[in-house]
Design goal:
Blueprint (H helix, E strand, L loop, with lengths): L15 E3 L11 E3 L32 H13 L3 E2 L3 E4 L5 E13 L10 E10 L1 H4 L8 E9 L5 E6 L2 E7 L12 E5 L3 E2 L5 E7 L1 H7 L3 H22 L1
Parallel strand pairs: 3-11
Antiparallel strand pairs: 1-2, 3-5, 4-5, 5-6, 7-8, 7-12, 8-9, 10-12
């Protein structure tokens, strides 16, 4: 880890964590991992397939708050659990998407004794824009989707046909029509207790204008006028 010889973690084979209050270039940010409330740790050096990176040796994944909450919930319940979302940035720091951490428990026996419980956890990253790609055909543009979570920031996307654009963090002030909002609970997976997901959809002004038209009224009025004119002709003759 490149730590000084007098650092308390040097040469000690215990699970360690990272102190988020210290800067990334501080050797002192590596600290002994405080066991979480379940008394378990999730060393990243034991994941498969193996990531050949020395910094993962004995690193406790629960020092990441999203992993901690999610994996603890899986460990206790065995449910497939979706973490709270956070922003994913490119190498230059530009926000490019929202992502969540998805985990499911692997049981010792599918129908075995309940006290054995979870013996491993299968994990993966979920990019939210993948849910919205290829949902609507080409030419149907201007649908805004807001991912809401009570425990973290909101995220806004725009759907243009099969393509999805990440607008930014928060409920971004866009040219949408808010009185036509649709809200649905997202319950495909279990959530962190007290942190449910919701998806909100709003049409953009362009989308609204394309489908909000007086044409049906004009067509109806044309039929009525034509009928009255025809009736008037019959009456006159």
């Amino acid at each position: 880890l490149g730590l000084p010889e007098d650092h308390p973690i040097q040469g000690v084979p215990f699970i360690f964590a990272i102190d988020p209050t210290l800067p990334d270039d501080s050797p002192q940010r590596f600290i002994p991992s405080p066991l979480n409330e379940a008394g378990v740790a999730f060393p990243l050096s034991q994941i498969a397939p193996l990531i050949r990176y020395a910094g993962f040796m004995n690193f406790d994944g629960t020092s990441d708050i999203l992993m901690n909450e999610t994996m603890l919930h899986v460990y206790k319940t065995g449910e497939t659990t979706l973490s709270n979302p956070r922003v994913l940035e490119s190498d230059d720091g530009t926000p490019i998407s929202a992502q969540s951490f998805l985990a499911t428990g692997i049981m010792y026996h599918v129908h075995g004794p309940e006290d054995i419980g979870v013996v491993a956890i299968l994990t993966g990253n979920l990019l939210w824009d993948g849910f919205f790609e290829d949902l609507v055909p080409e030419g149907i543009d201007g649908i805004y989707v807001i991912i809401r979570n009570k425990c973290t920031q909101d995220f806004t996307y725009r759907i243009d046909g099969p393509d999805v654009l990440f607008i930014g963090e928060g409920d971004v002030d866009v040219d949408d029509v808010r009185d036509l909002t649709m809200t649905n609970d997202f319950d495909a997976f279990a959530n962190i207790p007290g942190c449910p997901f919701q998806l909100q959809l709003h049409p953009s002004q362009d989308f609204y204008d394309a489908y909000h038209t007086n044409q049906p009224f004009i067509n109806t009025l044309t039929v009525i006028v034509t009928f009255l004119a025809t009736a008037l002709v019959f009456i006159m003759y």
